[in-house]
Amino acid sequence: MNVLAAVGRNASVRTGRAAFRRRRRLRAGLLQLVSVGVGLGLGLAVPEIGRGPVLPSRQVAELLLATGFGVLGAATVIFSVLFLVVQWAATTFTPRLTLFRDAPIVWRTFAFVVGLTVFCATAALTLAGRDEVSVIVPVGAGVLLLLLLALLRSLLLQAVAAIQLAPVLLSVSERGRRGLDLLCAGGTGRGEDPGGPAGPGHPAGRGRPRSTVGWTGAGTVLQRVDTDRLAAAARAADAVVVLRVSPGAALRHGTTVAEVYDGELPASAVLRTLETGAERVFDQDPGLAFRLLADIALRALSPAVNDPATAVQAVDAMEDLLLRPAPARAREREVADRAGTVRVVVPQPGREDFLRTALDDVIPAARNSPMVLIRLRALLENLRGTGHGRADGPIGRRLAWVDDELDTRFPRLRETLAEERAEGGERAEGDAGRAEGDAGRAGEEHPDGG
């Protein structure tokens, strides 16, 4: 029985998305809540300390109130820097770049500001009606203020790095490398068998699915899949769930999300394991790094910017990722339950998908830039020379595409490159011949190997 988005599916979608929204709100607000609690506790406990020298409580209370309200200005600095960096990254690099916005230092600094303000206000109110207070109270406030300055310094340094090209490319590349490593390792789900043969419970050859899970909510992006939770639900229903979309894919009304084989599994159980949002994230989406690097290169090659050197740097970062191990073509990852039975099948991208994202838009955009075309040709030659493309047609076709662009638009440059390669080959052969001659003479002079 095929079921595509039954009438009650809307409630299921809301249930799954609401659960993840609650988790995100909890993660975002938990740190601020903890900071408020710590500040309140310290504000009540520290003034009770009676050791050490004492100071007039009235002056200390005024100092604490001034510090607490003054620290609130740091929150304005944080959001001003955040707005500046986000706007700069969106207009200079790509609007999909959200590294600084999601950086932990931003929200940790804001949480510390809130906690310090609560501490100062609570301690000042606790001192009301007292004549003297230990010097530990203002000293503690001073130490916390110094810690806040250290956090602000780190925040500003990271903000400066977030508007510079090299640090941005490095950050994107690092996240892309982690995603590719997880892709080759089979991900992080328990009991996963990446690309292995079909085992018990595999849907291959089982005919039509028992049910189909469709998406009827508003347009969104699939960010993460909780494969462990989905495998547990499938095991309880003695079913196999085959996802038809992977993290990073856009979900539209009527999109087939998954197919359920063997057992009966409610659509709500599948949809609750999907985390969706307005934009792609790096966690389970290795293709996002290639998308961002391609966006940066395209922005640099636009007529309004015309900065081919930036595009070359983006291509350098692409090459570093493309040279890393990855499956040649898209494949399926199997997730097994604790008993070893395959319960979830998740589609995963391959090198062909990464090549398409990274290069297919950049090559035509670079047709008027010999610098970028030469760098793209070197990238493809390196891929073919390292074993990634010896039997891989996509690399050869893109190399021929770049050569055609060079032949059509820069024929003399193409001839110069061919001559330089020929001279380089002759020079290499000459160096090899001289090395063999030196070895032969050394053998004649020392026949005994001494």
From TrEMBL:
Q: Which UniProt keywords apply?
A: Membrane, Transmembrane, Transmembrane helix
Where is the segment annotated Disordered?
Answer: 186-215, 416-450
Q: Which organism is it from?
A: Streptomyces populi
KW Iron-sulfur (keyword) present = no
- What name does UniProt use for this protein? DUF2254 domain-containing protein
**InterPro entries tied to this protein:** DUF2254_membrane
What domain of life does the UniProt record list for this protein's source? Bacteria
Give the stretches traversing the membrane: 26-46, 66-93, 105-127, 133-152
Q: Which portions of the chain have biased composition (kind: Gly residues)? A: 186-204
* Signal peptide as annotated in the record: none
